[in-house]
Design goal:
Layout: H1 9-19, E1 27-32, H2 39-52, E2 57-61, H3 67-78, H4 84-108, E3 112-116, H5 119-129, H6 134-145, E4 152-157, H7 160-169, H8 182-198, E5 203-207, H9 212-227
Parallel strand pairs: 1-3, 1-4, 2-3, 4-5
Helix pairs in contact: 2-9, 3-4, 4-6, 5-6, 5-8
C-alpha cells in the first residue's frame, strides 16, 4: 500500500477512539474471592468479551495496578513478615494510588474498569481473617478511595480445600497469604459471604466450582444489565 493510501497512526488512533463504545460515568467491576477461585481467569474473559463489543476496557488489579502498587505487592505477598496494621495500610495506599492513576481517569472517559480485588478483600482478609476491627478497615479504605465503590462485584466462592488443590495442580508456589492456616482462609471465606449478604444488589455470588464457561455465561448475563442501563 502506498504511503498516501495508508491512514496515519494518529488518524487510526482517532478513528479507534471515536468508534469505542462508552458507558456514561464509566462502569467499575471488581472480582473477589479466595486465592484459587479463578478471579483472574474470569476477569480476563470478561475484558476480552467487552473489547469485542467495542468498549474501552481497563484491566487492573489490587495490589499491583501501578508501579508503586507493584512494589507494594512484592512487600505484601513475598515479604517475610508484615505487621497486620502495616498490611492494612499498605493495601489502602496501593488502592489510593491505583484509583488516582488508573481507575478514576478511565471511568471519567466512560471506560469499563475490570479489576482483581478491591476494598472487599481488605474487609475479608484483614477484617475477618485478621483480628482487626472491620469498622476501622472500612473507614481507612473509604478515606483512601474517597468512597468509590464498584457498581458490580463478582464474588467467586470457593472452599479453601478446593482452592489449595487448584494451586497444587497448577504447580503454583504459595505466597505469604496463601501459606496462612486453613482456619484463616475459612474466616476469609465467611467474611466475603457476609459482605455479599449485606449488599445483594452489588454482589453476584457464584459457585467457583462450576466450569469456566458456565461461570463466564452467568457473569455476562449480569453485566448486560449494566450496559443496557
Amino acid at each position: 500500500m502506498s504511503e498516501s493510501a495508508e491512514p496515519s497512526l494518529a488518524a487510526q488512533a482517532s478513528s479507534t477512539a471515536e468508534a469505542a463504545r462508552s458507558v456514561a460515568g464509566g462502569l467499575f467491576v471488581t472480582f473477589e474471592g479466595g486465592d484459587g477461585a479463578g478471579k483472574s481467569t474470569q476477569a480476563d474473559l470478561l475484558a476480552t468479551w467487552l473489547e469485542a463489543q467495542g468498549y474501552e476496557v481497563v484491566r487492573t488489579r489490587d495490589p499491583g495496578g501501578t508501579p508503586l502498587g507493584s512494589a507494594v505487592r512484592a512487600l505484601l505477598l513475598h515479604g517475610d513478615h508484615v505487621d497486620q496494621r502495616a498490611e492494612a495500610l499498605l493495601y489502602a495506599a496501593d488502592r489510593a494510588q491505583n484509583l488516582a492513576e488508573v481507575v478514576r481517569p478511565a471511568l471519567a472517559r466512560g471506560a469499563v474498569v475490570v479489576q482483581d480485588r478491591y476494598i472487599d478483600s481488605s474487609l475479608a482478609y484483614q477484617g475477618a481473617g485478621r483480628p482487626l476491627p472491620s469498622s476501622e478497615i472500612r473507614e481507612l479504605n473509604e478515606w483512601a478511595t474517597e468512597g468509590l465503590w464498584p457498581q458490580l462485584t463478582v464474588l467467586l466462592d470457593v472452599s479453601p480445600d478446593l482452592a489449595a488443590r487448584r494451586r497444587a495442580s497448577a504447580g503454583q508456589q504459595a505466597d505469604r497469604l496463601e501459606r496462612e492456616a486453613a482456619e484463616f482462609h475459612h474466616r476469609v471465606r465467611e467474611g466475603f459471604l457476609a459482605l455479599a449478604a449485606a449488599e445483594p444488589d452489588r454482589f453476584l455470588v457464584l459457585d467457583a466450582a462450576q466450569e469456566v464457561k458456565e461461570l463466564h455465561t452467568q457473569i455476562l448475563s449480569r453485566i448486560a444489565t449494566y450496559l443496557a442501563a
